[in-house]
Amino acid sequence: MMFPPGLGPQRSARDAGHGYEHLRTLRPSGPLERRHHCSDDRRPGSGHRSSGRRRGSPVRLERAPHTADPRRTRPRCRCCSVAPAAQHAAQPRRADIVRCVHHRSDRLQRHQGDPGRQHLVGSHRGQPRALPRCRHLRRHARFHHAAARHGPPTVKALHGRVLVIDVGTTGTRAAIVTRDSRVKHVAHRTTRPDTPFPGLVEFDAAALAAVSLELARTVLEQAGPVDALGITCQRASTVLWDRSTGLPVGPAVGWQDLRTLGECINARAQHGLVLAPNQSATKLAWLLDAHDPDRNRDLCFGTVDSWLVWNLTEGHHHVTDHTNAAITGLVEIDGSDWSDHALAALGIPRSVLPRIVDSSGPIAAATALPGAPLIAGIAGDQQASLIGQSCVRAGLAKCTFGTGAMLDMVTGQTGPTAAGRTPRGTFPIVARSRDRVITWGIEAIMLTAGSSVDWLVEDLGLIPSATASHEIAASVPDTGDVYFVPALIGLGTPHWDYGARGTLIGATRGTTRAHVVRAVLEGVAHRGADLVDAAEAETGLVIDSLRIDGGMSANPTFVQALANSTGKNIEVAPYTECTTLGAGYLAGLAVGLWSGPDAVEGSWCPSRTVEPTGTADRTPTRARWTEAVERSSRWIPALSALDF
To answer: What is 390-572+614-640's CATH superfamily?
Structure first.
């Protein structure tokens, strides 16, 4: 198997001379029980479903007959070089433990003619008959049995910490999340996408995986062993790679990429599919048309989480979780499986798709990392931020104020009745899943938030830095009746007007720089209130207090304006970015680091709470704001006509 540089299986000097060079794979000749078939059962190079080799057949390792010394042929743990004792024939070998982490039938038997191994996996119920002496192999054996039962792992959280890999749009980090909800040992690397042409956003998938693994190894070296591994990432970015080589096919296409705008319009007109260009569906179809027009190559599709798991497990697992799958535009309304209608309409073969797994639960051993930690949590970045701010029950909501802003709210276990945007301009999302039970939520979107402040700094030159906006805006008590509508690239929830444009209205000869800066901050706050109003109207639930994170959450003037505009208490998260903490919660829940969602909710400790000031009714101000929004709308009619 070929892997991108630095990602493939590594042989250390300890491995040489211990019998690995004499191992060969043979097809079993005895009767086999039928395995459960899932899309990632095929090993690299096994081909399509029509391959002559029976899919899912277990592989038996036998020693070459010329190997004389049994001590040289016993597989050794690459972590500590401990080999199983020769007299324990029933002990699991490393190949058995690592390669069958999921979906193996309880009744599966090895080749009946091999008496030394027929008792090895006779049943997955209970513990192995004899665990290896090496503590690393013992951990893998327990993971193996836990994952096979599709339930919580039998291992306990021994170290009180989990490793998290967090891949954002402009940067990648690895960190440790501890039992007391602290984020430690953070390692970060800037990983910006390329924009070869306006509207096109691409990135190097191989380089992204290499950076992620490098940062994870650095953190593990500093922190030591962990109980589990969690992954969170940018959503809907699309990666296509060759199953046999593990190499990316073409560029990875970022979620912001707009090259398939026309295909989204055609899909709606011809097939009734409601797709947006920032979803993966049309991006995947475009990549397949460009690199596999006949659909005869053995390729794998995945969002960033799938690509990371593939590399972390050295090409043995092709999976994604419910939160990332639901954002692709390729799943059924209930989120249970891939949509045959969407696949047929776009010409996407099901064989390229990953298996959908829980957001929290045992998935696979990350054998590419020291100690091979158990991958036990996966989520998209906004869903990770949602649980990272302890929003685990219906009515709890958070809003992340970054370049744009995303308000996510938990609604419960009742799924949506229709796909696509709701009448209030929100979108149904999978908040998380555990034990095959999906918890749903809604998402409201602001297209321009922190980028409005960047506009003041980088384009207008009104302020020296984004952090200076607080002091400058606080130098005046109000905006002087100046309103700014942050519609620099259109308006999102609830309007969804791509033709709206940024508007500064009410300026006079007495308007100063401070008034303009304050108007920009209050304009973003008013848009935040729009998101809150839409979420409450859509769900019928009341948001008692709004939890926020993101870069703008560190701006006191903005946070106070948000409290005044929404009429809600604003609870500021203890960390600027809560995605890492949320992925840690999901992985920790799977291994017992936290007992359940209630324990996660109880761990919430905001850095500060900001209450609305004054006793005046906010209705007149909001009415004035609504008038300003109306004047900014439909400035470019052709773009306003777009409906995604």
So the answer is: ATPase, nucleotide binding domain (3.30.420.40)
